[in-house]
Structure formats: C-alpha cells, structure tokens
Amino acid sequence: MFKKNAVYNRRKDLHEPYGGNQQSGIASCGSHPFVFLFSSAAGEEFGYKDGWISDDEFVYTGEGQRGNMEFVRGNRAIKDHVINGKQLHLFEHYKMGDYKYLGEFQYNSFEYQNGKDANGRDRQIIRFHLKPAK
Questions:
Q1: Assigned domain for 125 exists
Q2: Domain count, the chain
Q3: Torsion angle of alpha carbons 126, 41, 3, 34, nearest 10°?
Q4: CATH classification at residue 16
Q5: In this predicted model, what pLDDT tens digit does every residue of 82-107 receive, in sequence order?
Q6: Which residues is 51 bridged to in the sheet?
Q7: Which of 58, 70, 68, 71 is nearest to 107 (CA)?
Q8: Is residue 98, in this structure, part of any structural domain at all?
C-alpha cells in the first residue's frame, strides 16, 4: 500500500484520502484500518523523543502535552491496534508537511519514563516499543 522510504504529503496523500486527526502525532482513521504515527524532532523539550533503539525496534512517544500520559485516544489506538483490526503506519518528518514512510509496525510493549509536561511539571511519559510488521 505505502512504499517504504517514499515521501508523502501528510494532508494531501494521507489525511484527505484516509482521514485521521491532522493535528495529532497519532491519527486513527475512522473509516480505514489504519493508525498513522508521525514522528518528529519537534517537542523533545517535553519528552517527545522517538527513534530506533536497535535494528528491529523503534521507540515512539505517546500523546499528551500536560499531566501524565494515559491510555486514551491515540495512546489506546496504538496499544489496542491488533484488537481493533488496525495497522500502525509510521512516518518520520522530512520537511514542512512531508513525511518519509518508515513502514508498518506492531505494538510490542511500553514503558513509563519520567519527564516534564508543557507547563514544566513532572509527569509520566508513555514510550511505545514498536517492531516492524512481518
């Protein structure tokens, strides 16, 4: 469906045909079996730090700017994607509005990490461990 390492315009190529929240880093598509994950270096000051930790494991930071991250909305969509019959498709920021497709992934596990929220308060951050889908 999507081509690995191809660059897609988030609005035109992904949200217009498939739906999903255009503002969130986790966009579950209501009428398609996809959850789009958008990774970017922006937001690292609030604990959003994604990336490969091995050749076959990518860590993705959950959503929520204030308070402890919880398993609601997008975070629940990642954790429950198999139960909900959805595929996780991971995209990495390439340039303004465009994202490089890293591939289809599966939720493997999660961990909590301590960090700061947008108000500078201590909080728990959810870090998802994802494996490339086979």
A1: yes
A2: 1
A3: 30
A4: 2.30.280.10
A5: 999 999 999 999 999 999 999 999 99
A6: 59
A7: 58
A8: yes
Question: How many Cα atoms are found within 13 Å in the side-chain-facing hemisphere of 4?
Answer: 6
31's tokens: 């009428």
- Return all residues near 93 (Cβ < 8 A) that are at least 6 apart: 38, 39, 40, 41, 42, 99, 100
Other CB atoms within 10 A of residue 79 CB? 17
Asked whether the predicted pLDDT for residue 127 surpasses 90, the reply is: yes
The one-letter amino acid at 27: A
Q: How confident is the model at residue 48 (pLDDT cuts 50, 70, 90)?
A: confident
Torsion sign across C-alpha atoms 116, 94, 78, 31? positive
- Domain span at residue 27 reads 7-132
Residue 61: CB atoms within 10 Å: 25
Pairing relationship of beta strands 87-95 and 34-39 according to DSSP bridges: parallel
CA distance 97 to 112: 30
Nearest Cα residue to 101 out of 91, 87, 88, 89: 91
**Residue 97 falls within a domain, yes or no?**
yes
Q: Is residue 120 part of a domain?
A: yes
Q: Token pair of 46, please?
A: 């609030």
